[in-house]
Amino acid sequence: MTGLQEALDGRWAHVRQEARKQLAGSHFVAVPGETIEQARERISRLITELPVDPGVAAGFPKEYGGGADPGGSVVAAEMLAQLDLSLMVKAGVQWGLFGGAVVALGNERQHAAYLPDIITARLMGCFAMTETGHGSDVQQLRTLCTYDPATETFDLHTPHEAARKDYIGNAAKDGRMAVVFAQLITGGKSYGVHAWLVPIRDEDGNPLPGVTIGDDGHKAGLLGVDNGRISFDHVTVPRDALLDRYGQVSSDGAYTSSIENDTRRFFTMLGTLVRGRVVVGGSSSSATKSALTIAVRYGETRRQFGAPGEQREIVVNDYLVHQRKLLVALAHTYALTFAQEELVIALHEVQTADGAVDEHRQRELESRAAGLKAVQTWHATHTIQVCREACGGAGYLAENRLPGLKADTDVFTTFEGDNTVLLQLVAKGLLTGYRDAFGSLDGWGRAAFVAEQVREMVLERTAARSLIQRLVDAVPGRDEEVALTDRGWHLRMFEDREKHQLDGVIRRLRRGAAQKRDRQFDIFNDVQDHVLSVAKAHVDRVVLEAFVAHATEPRLEKMCDLYALTVIEANKGWYLEHGRLTPARAKAVTGKVNDLLKQLRPEMRELVDAFAIPEEWLNAAILREEEGRQETMAAHDLSVR
Amino acid sequence: MTGLQEALDGRWAHVRQEARKQLAGSHFVAVPGETIEQARERISRLITELPVDPGVAAGFPKEYGGGADPGGSVVAAEMLAQLDLSLMVKAGVQWGLFGGAVVALGNERQHAAYLPDIITARLMGCFAMTETGHGSDVQQLRTLCTYDPATETFDLHTPHEAARKDYIGNAAKDGRMAVVFAQLITGGKSYGVHAWLVPIRDEDGNPLPGVTIGDDGHKAGLLGVDNGRISFDHVTVPRDALLDRYGQVSSDGAYTSSIENDTRRFFTMLGTLVRGRVVVGGSSSSATKSALTIAVRYGETRRQFGAPGEQREIVVNDYLVHQRKLLVALAHTYALTFAQEELVIALHEVQTADGAVDEHRQRELESRAAGLKAVQTWHATHTIQVCREACGGAGYLAENRLPGLKADTDVFTTFEGDNTVLLQLVAKGLLTGYRDAFGSLDGWGRAAFVAEQVREMVLERTAARSLIQRLVDAVPGRDEEVALTDRGWHLRMFEDREKHQLDGVIRRLRRGAAQKRDRQFDIFNDVQDHVLSVAKAHVDRVVLEAFVAHATEPRLEKMCDLYALTVIEANKGWYLEHGRLTPARAKAVTGKVNDLLKQLRPEMRELVDAFAIPEEWLNAAILREEEGRQETMAAHDLSVR
């Protein structure tokens, strides 16, 4: 194991190594060009063959055969994503979303009754939250669940077509129960969204009375996952089917909860389900790594044009623009890997902590999960596309894996939270930090200054705090004098962009609030692009801090330079606009990036090999054929010259 | 017909209208979720049912039943692309590439013998240029075709696996002949790449002796096109199978050609085939328009979050960030439509001109075709992805068309020329303009200045020349005083970026040549990113000039403002770096863009309706369902409040 691999494998290296061993054997590997029926059949079968320990059971409580290892469960999912994304998503639905909701929202009786069968996949289930008419605004779901004290049952009902559950994994074919999210109504009053464990199919797989199940049919990708639609026509649900950890209904219909405020309660419930987003972010990076491995290795053998007068063989990886695509994407992938590692550690610590949940840490975790999910999934969409193009026509053939990686991961940018909405959430978290210090938005209008002190409080460092502070403090005063690879300077540039943009948004919101007091939508909408920039700047900083904390050897240092400088380069418009870069230094940044690419060029192959994806998992015909073919061609060319 | 539609439909409006009428009827429309066998079967059938006039025959000579209307043939293909991209590509292979090569490279006897059957699709054929080992460097193809005066035949041979023809449309299933590109060897000497018309299958569809045909199998998209691989094992080809317009071999093996230089002859032959790139660029924009129509219309009905305190209904199109995605993409699509129109006119005029080809115009046409193909196909890939995400989960379902549009167009960024390679071609064209004035690259080392005069010659205006000159001349001296919507200022900003970057590249190439005289690869590779920036700047200008020429009414003026200002905004780093924007003005640009979005928001629906895509061609379930559903939901919400 190389030092690079050790760094990338991180704290759960043992889970990764175990998966590489346990899931060896090609029958787990993605199959290109399947029909939807073939894919569903194969994935339904494989899902029951997955190793339970430390795999799919990692996230469950010890008393039901689980590993009580939330971090390990995320990493196990990331490994599945390198085999087959349908398999990962199907597993994520079954054990992450469905099983996870029962664990997080259910009581002990419910745990005992269902978890053993959920873990072994004897009981397949759905997570029925999203509705056709409402994706992101889950607090406003339209499905109703009304308690009737006379019968001591709930009435679960879909009032109109926009309220039907949609895009639900496991619904079209395999799910026998569903965790259904709906508005809880009792005594004529609504208490907000809660969840019930509801049977939807009988033993023979037929929908139960009152339950209508539709099929979402063919999708862009993830053909092995049976997404569907579920409607309820006044379905009777027993009182004890309510997953009632956060809200209980007594037999006479009285509602009780440890959390008074409906909104707070709802978001507390949602907060317990944060793992799904962490898994999606990490899994999309797994796919990115597969794609980069394929493209970089192909680029080591593929030639494009003859290079007259050159002694050496020029391959496509030798081209600056090819490096600009693949090596830069690789540096960002490294950065995101370390940020994901820090996030998984944070998740693990929050979810294994004794005693009450630390609200501040929980909120911080949710914000980081949202931000990194958005950034990792967009990075995956972008990078897999770049890899496809880097492989030319070969990249378009299913046998070379890239089409599948692309089609399967595409949906990640909008599921488990639309990326744009998630970034707004991140920004709102930052704004809330301000508000907690200054009071409400109205209050901001009176506060004439923004205290450095407050800013420090909001922009908390997220990794290796003391190291980072030391690096930042060591930067001399004038930027022009600082080396372009000075880590403290990078950190300061990232922080600066975030702080300044946050200040700007707050100023504009205050101004807007003063002018358009009654038009809340417009106040926020006018600055929505600015709000998203703040969120991106924040995530960039979180990612850089994680990279800095893990850049423990020379190649990682260089990759960290490349990450930092390409982010600065991509935002040079902002830096120049705000006097943080002089024109001369902005040009020097570009020169330094090209210089780093030259230095890292010989390492490209090792940098992807460090992802340690088993050869059979890569499953791309061009990797099997290309080396032999190029040798033949080179020999031929020599003979005809 | 609205004024917008009239402007977009352009000079070949009659061809578009005819297609909308002739291709009505849902059996031409793309079918989501087909297996590869179903798709191939359907497309093979439909290809024989396409209207010949003014459709598939438009590009052929009148004497064989064609329309002698090269421009019309491009527009007819663009229309097919709105129905089904597999159908468009299959038609493009048959009539554009295969038939087009016979027209352009063949002699009259060959025209008479084959064109009638090609036009009616009785004779299906392939265009066998690309090889597994060489995509872009077609001058270095490895297939050999050697003349033997003893038998008066050629020997066509694939010397090794990397030389097999690959990704060839019509090869896996339907093609009976192929235009095969190979190195012509006679009398022991190679004369470069030529083309032969070679039978590959017998009447029963079996490969002929010596011909090995493979199947490229499942692809990311375009399942209806049967791409395959062809190898030749010393296949005997009669002497008169050579498409010999540009080079002839006499029975005794003597080679003659009207073009002495092998390279020049080869690029002249390639140049006659320019239409393929024009079709791919235009067709990718057709797909972009379908995607935008779907996303904008869905965004008019889809709600995301409740907007407390608002009287009006807030739909996703009301969000600034949604407008930043869709409206900006829409403005760029308009811009590219007009640029494509100008390109098609240029193509039409060159290809219908009497007498000898004007070399300068031909070169200009090839360069513009390359640049617009690259920019349009990348814009399609980007925009269709944005539209998919803008539709959330619904965008991922095959029934809503976007997955098909995305998967089918993906390959366009690398076929008919890899986009990166094409942009290099554009840049080399600009550099050649310099060289023609200054002499060779070596000569540049001596030339100490860059004359304005030369620059003017290189940076020729591409549309509405006198109007544009007037606008540029009317801009007052100091930028800060000019309105942000001043068209002359936009034009000057675009020109400036192109000129200055071109100067910069030349300066760096000269310096490189002086320092590394013997290392040609490094000299160019060191500035490759800069070279691509020049090409992008050039294409941006060409596109703006076309938009200016066509912006004949107020909404088009605003869309042109939006196009120009978002390009300036995207490049503000460069403008600030080079003192072309002050920080204050750079910020004002962003403000103005947001302002334009607000002004154009109410027009979104009309702006996509002007593409005039027949409702049945759009073929997206969400458009059929969404309106009714939203009405039900709104009514319900009112009743529960």
| Number of E-state strands of chain A | 11
Radius of gyration of chain A over alpha carbons?
26 Å
Supply the CATH class of the largest domain in chain A: Mainly Alpha
Strand content of chain A: 5-15%
**What do the pLDDT scores of chain A average to?**
90
Number of domains of chain A: 3
Proper CATH architecture of the largest domain in chain A: Up-down Bundle
Describe the model.
Chains A, B: Keywords: FAD, Fatty acid metabolism, Flavoprotein, Lipid metabolism, Oxidoreductase, Peroxisome. Chains A, B: Residues 271-431 form the Acyl-CoA oxidase C-alpha1 domain. Chains A, B: InterPro entries: ACOX_C_alpha1 (IPR055060), Acyl-CoA_Oxase/DH_mid-dom (IPR006091), Acyl-CoA_Oxase/DH_mid-dom_sf (IPR046373), Acyl-CoA_oxidase (IPR012258), Acyl-CoA_oxidase_C (IPR002655), AcylCo_DH-like_C (IPR036250), AcylCoA_DH/ox_N (IPR013786), AcylCoA_DH/ox_N_sf (IPR037069). Chains A, B: Residues 126-235 form the Acyl-CoA oxidase/dehydrogenase middle domain. Chains A, B: It is found in: Peroxisome. 2 copies of one chain form a homodimer. Chain A folds into 3 domains: 3-119, Butyryl-Coa Dehydrogenase, subunit A, domain 1 (Orthogonal Bundle), CATH 1.10.540.10; 125-268, Beta Barrel (Butyryl-CoA Dehydrogenase, subunit A, domain 2); 275-608, Butyryl-CoA Dehydrogenase, subunit A, domain 3. Chain A has 25 helices and 11 strands. With 641 residues, the first copy, chain A, is an alpha+beta fold. In chain A, helix 17 (487-515) runs antiparallel to helix 19. Mean pLDDT of chain A is 90; it is low at 438-457 and 632-641. In chain A, a hairpin with a 2-residue loop joins strand 5 (177-186) and strand 6. In chain A, the strands form 3 sheets. In chain A, strands 1, 2, 3, 5, 6 and 9 form a 6-stranded mixed beta sheet that branches. Chain A has a 3-stranded antiparallel beta sheet with strand order 4-8-7, with no helix packed on it. At the A-B interface, helix 10, helix 11, helix 12, helix 13 and helix 18 of A face helix 10, helix 11, helix 12, helix 13 and helix 18 of B.
